[in-house]
Design goal:
By secondary structure, the protein is an alpha+beta fold. About 40% of the residues lie in helices and about 15% in strands. It contains nine helices and five strands; from the N terminus they run ααααααββαβαββα. A five-stranded mixed sheet has the order 2-1-3-4-5, sandwiched between helices.
Length: about 250
């Protein structure tokens, strides 16, 4: 004789009871959410904010994980420069939680640095210094950016073209101009950082600038400048000495 399944029972599955650890995790997160609703996010500590971002789940309560992260990285601004896979391993969290945390850090930075209506207008290299300082803050490897401008030299978009090693950034002109063509940009400015802290352009920087300038001429998209960001200063290669056109 066959036994009929009870209501809601699925063959091959057992009823799953919540564990004490999971219950504790949910209670702690719920308490933190209520404090946020009652007092606002500004009233929460770093660990509490991190716990809400991480969310419940996993083998360790979110507040415990958040506390560990805060102790390991007292300067939380350094977290944004850590790849998700490395952050997951060092913090003992899942890759999903690591990606969620990095996305929240980036979103928070953008929310606190709103651009003027219509985009940032660039008249001289110094107009970009605050933006570039934010973009490259705390990075321990080279990152190459392209800033796409309209006909009035308003910044329409800032895109990461590549992230390199501790002392080199691998950049292909195809990746720089692909988005420029796609969004019909009239001009662009490129920028990258030197993790060493020295903003002096290298011979590779000058050669890359010359090659990008040649491509820009062919495509009819003006390359206005290439900025090199160091610890103390930002060097404009346009003012430093624009290199001759790249020759194959």
């Amino acid at each position: 004789m066959f036994r009929l399944n009870s209501l809601g029972e699925v063959p091959g599955q057992r009823e799953i009871s919540s564990s004490p650890l999971l219950d504790q995790n949910l209670i702690m997160i719920d308490d933190t959410r209520r404090r946020l609703e009652r007092l606002g996010a500004v009233a929460l500590g770093n660990a509490e904010l991190l716990a809400l971002i991480l969310g419940p789940g996993g083998g360790v309560p979110a507040l415990d994980v958040a506390g560990k992260i805060c102790r390991h990285w007292p300067d939380l601004s350094r977290l944004s420069a850590i790849p998700a896979a490395v952050l997951a391993r060092q913090a003992g969290i899942s890759p999903t939680r690591a990606r969620r945390l990095l996305a929240a850090i980036e979103f928070g930075g953008r929310a606190n640095s709103p651009q003027p209506a219509g985009g940032l207008m660039v008249r001289r290299p110094e107009d970009l210094h605050p933006l570039l300082r934010r973009e490259f803050q705390g990075l321990d490897r080279e990152r190459f950016l392209a800033l796409y401008l309209d006909t009035r030299h308003n910044v329409r978009a800032v895109e990461t073209v590549s992230i390199g090693t501790l002392n080199a950034s691998l950049v292909h002109p195809r990746e720089v101009f692909k988005n420029a063509i796609g969004m019909s940009a009239a001009a662009l400015i490129v920028a990258h950082n030197h993790p060493s802290g020295c903003a002096e352009p290298s011979s590779d920087d000058l050669e890359l600038t010359a090659r990008l300038d040649r491509c820009a001429e062919v495509l009819g998209i003006a390359l206005l400048d290439h900025l090199v960001v160091g610890d103390a200063k930002i060097v404009s290669i346009r003012e430093y000495g624009w290199p001759a056109g790249f020759k194959e």
